[in-house]
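Hi R.,

Here are the chain sequences for the assembly we discussed:
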Amino acid sequence: MAVTIRDVAKAAGVSAATVSRVINNSGYAHEDTRKAVLDAIQKLNYKPNEVARSLYTQRSKLIGLILPDITNPFFPALARGVEDWLREEGYRLIIGNSDEQLEQEMDYLDTFIQHNVVGIIASINEAHSDMLKDLKIPVVMLDRTIESLPAVYADQLEGGKLAAEKILELGSKEVTVIRGPVEVRPVYQRFVSSFQLLKQAGIKINVLDSELTFEGASESVKTLFDKYPNTDGILACNDIVAVAVMNEAERKGRSVPEDVQIIGFDDISISELVNPGLSTIRQPAYEMGARAAEILIKKVNQEVLTDIHHKLPVQFIERGSTRKVGD
Amino acid sequence: MAVTIRDVAKAAGVSAATVSRVINNSGYAHEDTRKAVLDAIQKLNYKPNEVARSLYTQRSKLIGLILPDITNPFFPALARGVEDWLREEGYRLIIGNSDEQLEQEMDYLDTFIQHNVVGIIASINEAHSDMLKDLKIPVVMLDRTIESLPAVYADQLEGGKLAAEKILELGSKEVTVIRGPVEVRPVYQRFVSSFQLLKQAGIKINVLDSELTFEGASESVKTLFDKYPNTDGILACNDIVAVAVMNEAERKGRSVPEDVQIIGFDDISISELVNPGLSTIRQPAYEMGARAAEILIKKVNQEVLTDIHHKLPVQFIERGSTRKVGD
DNA sequence: GATAAATGTGTAACCGGTTCCAGATAAAGG
DNA sequence: CCTTTATCTGGAACCGGTTACACATTTATC
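And here is the predicted structure of the full complex:
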């Protein structure tokens, strides 16, 4: 039905092999022949069938991307970074949301392999990493890390520390740290790092657990001010939770940042738009995605990588949910 | 390298054809043979190569999804609806962000075709629709509509009207309607619908243009209260813009909802978490995505569809950015 | 028990590309 | 001018599945 390479060959009065050579700029092709072929391609509006090509060459222009949940605004930012970079390079993306479920991750991984993807970018937890370790195609970890694989991630330890330092610096005396799911490594790391620093400072620390989702967050946070009525500083495990906390604070009649200061993590787009603006630790999500794509392409092209782990810097973004120095 | 159907055949002592028949439950296969094949598959951990399969059958388990920008939280919700439904059915997604650019849309479309996707779900504007009209594979429009194609979308006219009615009912006397890009059909429709109703009501109406993105929104909205100082009600073209407006109001010292009421559109996840909560017109995004997927699968399976256009209901979600009746 | 119908299985062609190889022609070298 | 080398091109095999078809073997029918 669709126009094939043999149609083009016929139209140009050559063989399929020649057309293939022209298309791929491989082997010899006389200038006149080349022109004839190109004309025929143009005229017939021929587009090579990637499936056929991929079957023989065992490599496609597809790349697999596994993310926990694009409903969490941090991940679309990553995804766009990946996609924009890859598009430039002519690659396309098969995306799968895993909801952190091993089963779904494996499912998508199978799909990727079955479709001859040429590389994979994955944001999955170390505990689920076995399946990734001995794939024959390049894998780059994104946001999460696995010992033996290249990874792009933000500096969680620094981020956690920074958040803790800032909230102390800005005057909080009893800090509640909201801890996300411990399985989610980066989230746990930032927690530990904050916790340690606060502990060293010798102040009162409370810990509260929370989901990372919009629905989970507002629920988890409901007990916060009952459990820890004297808390005057909150470190949230991500910005979604932080916004939920701001809300809860309001509901309980505590003003932000006068009564409680709040610092989030991620710096997703809404963090700037909420009221007051959310002070947070910024992860350069888009850049992380782009960087992961860049590295993956390099590996696909067999380039040797000197550095395997790419730790991108985080940054404290000061907005209205924390006090100004000297307040 | 990977295990092929002929490896399985050898292991089971049969021919490749037989293995294929067993896998696909097509044609005859003796119970004993079937068992032997299944065992071999199990033992070798054989996974059929989708690429080879797709080359012959001309149909894959891939579906193409074109969205404007997953960075806008409305679209991930759609995407998850689509994905979750399709996963159940064994289909996988190639996703592309178009940024509403014709070139990128065409680019992804080509990719889809070249990869033998079996169907396409697209959220693109009617102006760019020519390329979709005579594809040989099923296409379902999502959020946007095109005359001749099946579509799933929310009732924009009702939504626009509803927003206008509510803001009047709740007492605003001079309403500013923020209009998004006119090329984005649903956004324009809701604007027109709101505008008409307000006009009929005979009140003062102002119109302000805005981008739909986070960055664009806060910028566009900066002049609002200077241009229209007496505005006491705002209909935003989407929730992102609405949140930006809430912020701007705060910055200008106008309290929401006492001085200005604000109604958004979409009901994205943060709308519930901002402060005050954003009253808005809810589009059932996730359901829309799922529905589109459902319809696409039906078309892929050659089922006849009675209804082509699926208009899903919208709903007014009352939160803190509007006053209560009787205030 | 002979014939017809239903089962069971393998061979080979096919999907649409790519590439190896061999043969033909053109350019270069002595 | 003849050999060597470089350039150009097509035939055929291949990638890993699916399926049309032929043939063999059971099972059903009378």
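The first helix of chain A runs from residue 5 to 12. The radius of gyration of chain A is 25 Å.

Let me know if anything looks off.

Best,
T.
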